């Protein structure tokens, strides 16, 4: 008799024993079966069930470990492992293992597993809340000494530890300059001109309203690629009028048809630390996102520049995600973010969302570095023009 037939025969005998109420006998037979054929998850799971039936939780955990050696990411073995750890009083290990199981849950969850999955989610959330509470208690004294930006980083550190968030990194599609700090949203203190920009919100909005009334034909799709270019992340929005722009300065060229209606905005742009790069920058525009429109996750071209948003018209519920941080725009409240970190946006409202977008140098670049970077950007293929603002 070959090993498969032997394991199958032992399994059949174990099934009959279990049906007859002989859990210890079924367990002994299954222990023999897994030594013959250790690669069968179903045998290990049956053995775990018989161990539970004989009140041997440790033996059941050992059997589940056998199943996980075959498939370390198996949803049901992970779920059973978490349940066993819970029953053994190992709540911390159980809570973490529930999280591992949920990460492997099928989508959609089959109806027979819905209740088990819901309970696993409840227990995992309890574990996260309990752990977060311990973290807060342990760090209260040290956290009190942190400033606002340090506290934000420290909070992200904790959510990363709890796996409620994950790290995101700069992933420019074309130009990566080494050694620059990676932040989804950069500290306001690095951009002293933000306050001046915010104080001019009403004047800038007035400029937008004038240019909209005077030059409606200049409203163009934000993303425009020719037919022979691989679109990748832009396929959904290429030439889509759900996301449009009124360019004031585009790749270093002032768009006079629009700019002449925006004196306040153009005057302010002169005081910003924008990248002055031949054929590429600076850039400034009004960005219009239609009701119900979604800008899918994407990354920008160069990590040597950052992007500033000044919200002008913001219906309720409009949100913007960069990496693991999601914010809602507020009219008149500007921010600077790294567009080479994955980001997306949504206007779930029934009204138009409008923001002013400008680019700025990454603050880690010295004046000499900025000049050097500009030479490379200017000499690169024009097809790599800085898109994605």
Residue share in helix: 40-55%
The biggest beta sheet, please?
7 strands, antiparallel
Q: Give average pLDDT, whole number.
A: 91
Task: Using the coordinates above, name the CATH class of the largest domain.
Answer: Mainly Beta
Radius of gyration: 29 Å
The best one-word shape is elongated
Helix and strand pattern: HHHHHHHHHHEEEHHEEEEEEEEH
**CATH-assigned fold name of the largest domain:** Jelly Rolls
Question: How many domains?
Answer: 2
The number of distinct helices, counting runs of at least 4 residues, comes to: 13
Backbone structural class: alpha+beta
CATH architecture of the largest domain: Sandwich
Structure, explained:
This protein has helices at residues 3-19, 23-36, 41-53, 57-70, 75-87, 91-103, 114-143, 148-161, 193-199, 201-214, 256-259, 263-269, 367-379, and strands at residues 220-221, 243-250, 253-254, 284-289, 294-298, 305-313, 319-322, 325-328, 335-337, 343-346, 353-361. It is α+β, with helices and mostly antiparallel strands and 389 residues long. The chain has 2 domains: 3-128, Tetratricopeptide repeat domain (Serine Threonine Protein Phosphatase 5, Tetratricopeptide repeat), CATH 1.25.40; 188-384, Sandwich (Jelly Rolls). The strands form 2 sheets. Strands 1, 2, 3, 4, 6, 9 and 11 form a 7-stranded antiparallel beta sheet that branches. The chain has a 4-stranded antiparallel beta sheet with strand order 5-10-7-8, with no helix packed on it. The relative contact order is 0.09. The model has no long low-confidence stretch (mean pLDDT 91).
């Amino acid at each position: 008799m070959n090993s498969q037939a032997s394991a199958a025969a032992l399994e059949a005998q174990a099934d009959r024993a279990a049906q007859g109420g002989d859990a210890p006998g079924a367990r002994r037979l299954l222990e023999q079966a897994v030594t013959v054929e250790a690669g069968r998850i179903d045998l290990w799971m049956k053995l775990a069930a018989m161990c539970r039936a004989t009140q041997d939780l440790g033996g059941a955990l050992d059997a589940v470990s056998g199943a996980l050696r075959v498939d370390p990411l198996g949803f049901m073995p992970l779920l059973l492992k978490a349940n066993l750890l819970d029953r053994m009083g190992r709540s911390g290990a159980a809570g973490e293992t529930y999280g591992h199981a949920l990460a492997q849950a099928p989508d959609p969850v089959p109806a027979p597993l819905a209740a088990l999955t819901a309970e696993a989610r409840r227990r995992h959330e309890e574990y996260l809340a309990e752990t977060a509470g311990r973290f807060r208690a342990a760090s209260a004294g040290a956290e009190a000494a942190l400033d606002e930006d340090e506290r934000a980083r420290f909070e992200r550190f904790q959510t990363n530890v709890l796996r409620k968030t994950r790290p995101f990194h700069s992933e420019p599609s074309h130009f990566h300059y080494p050694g620059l700090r990676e932040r989804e949203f950069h500290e306001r203190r690095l951009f002293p001109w933000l306050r001046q920009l915010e104080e001019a919100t009403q004047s800038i909005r007035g400029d937008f309203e004038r240019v909209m009334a005077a030059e409606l034909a200049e409203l163009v799709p934000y993303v425009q690629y020719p037919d022979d270019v691989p679109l990748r992340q832009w396929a959904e929005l290429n030439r889509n009028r759900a996301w449009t722009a009124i360019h004031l300065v585009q790749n270093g060229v002032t768009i006079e048809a629009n700019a002449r209606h925006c004196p306040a905005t153009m005057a302010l742009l002169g005081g910003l630390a924008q990248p002055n790069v031949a054929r590429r920058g600076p850039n400034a525009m009004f960005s219009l996102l239609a009701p119900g429109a979604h800008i899918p996750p994407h990354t920008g071209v160069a990590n040597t520049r950052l992007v500033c948003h000044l919200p002008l018209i913001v219906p309720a519920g409009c949100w913007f995600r960069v990496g693991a941080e999601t914010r809602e725009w507020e009219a008149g409240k500007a921010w600077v973010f790294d567009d080479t970190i994955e980001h997306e946006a949504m206007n779930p409202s029934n009204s138009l969302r409008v923001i002013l977008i400008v680019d700025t140098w990454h603050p880690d670049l010295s004046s000499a570095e900025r000049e050097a970077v500009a030479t490379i950007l200017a000499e690169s293929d024009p097809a790599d023009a800085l898109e994605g603002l």
